[in-house]
Design a protein that fits this description.
alpha+beta; Quinone Oxidoreductase, Chain A, domain 1; 3-stranded antiparallel β-sheet; two-stranded parallel sheet; 7 helices; about 25% helix; binds zinc ion
């Protein structure tokens, strides 16, 4: 924190004045203010990733979209714990009450144990998500993942799923070059040396075919 910072990043209130570019809000409207400040028309906003807005992201800190009432890490934008709040990009950064109430229900998963439980409960092939703000760089995951809104996927390749699409590429003039992809063909007796060569990536070894 820096002396003079004004906290408060999820305020609600009544519109006192609107800027010339604001057409969807009027003086007297009751509103809630999401914590992030999106422009509403950049690549990220168009994808529905408003927390990554390219217009307001805080590049000098390596962070996503600017937030209200936070430290310089997220742009040091004065927050809502004040008599008045200036809302940049108010067309998209403000929500009229009613729309907002449905969206403001949040759940918290701020403990590693809760995250592990989610992984236990989710069905195979399902998606586990966390909502709300959680820890720092180690609990439960690096904060960088939170800031960058990263999806984590892992698991075995669903090979059969892609076979029908890929097969045509294997039999039709070999556009992927798989016929010539192997760098070495050796007999089984040459396997130990081939493994050594592959391990050290010597002799340009990329793919070795063992001919029995
Ligand atoms: Zn944007």
């Amino acid at each position: 924190m820096t002396p003079g910072d004004i906290l408060g990043h999820e305020p609600m209130g009544i519109v006192e004045a609107v800027g010339s570019g604001v057409t969807n809000l009027h003086v007297g409207d009751r509103v809630v203010v999401p914590f992030n400040i999106p422009c509403g028309h950049c690549f990220m906003c168009d994808q529905g990733l408003q927390s990554q807005c390219e217009t307001t992201q805080v590049c000098d800190q390596g962070c996503g979209a600017a937030l209200f009432g936070y430290t310089k890490l997220y742009g040091q934008v004065p927050g809502g714990q004040a008599e008045l709040l200036r809302v940049p990009h108010a067309v998209t950064a403000l929500l009229p009450i009613g729309v907002a109430e449905k969206l403001m229900r949040k759940t918290g998963a701020d403990r590693l144990a809760a995250l592990h439980m989610a992984f236990d409960l989710v069905r195979r092939g399902g998606t586990a998500s966390t909502a709300g703000v959680y820890g720092a760089m180690t609990d439960p995951m690096p904060m960088t993942m939170f800031d960058k809104q990263v999806h984590v996927r892992m698991g075995q390749a669903n090979v059969r799923r892609w076979v029908d699409d890929i097969m045509a590429l294997l039999v039709d003039d070999d556009p992927l070059g798989v016929d010539t992809f192997a760098t070495h063909h050796v007999p089984l007796s040459g396997a130990p040396a081939a493994y050594e060569m592959f391990q050290s990536k010597s002799d340009g070894a990329i793919k070795v075919v063992l001919n029995p």
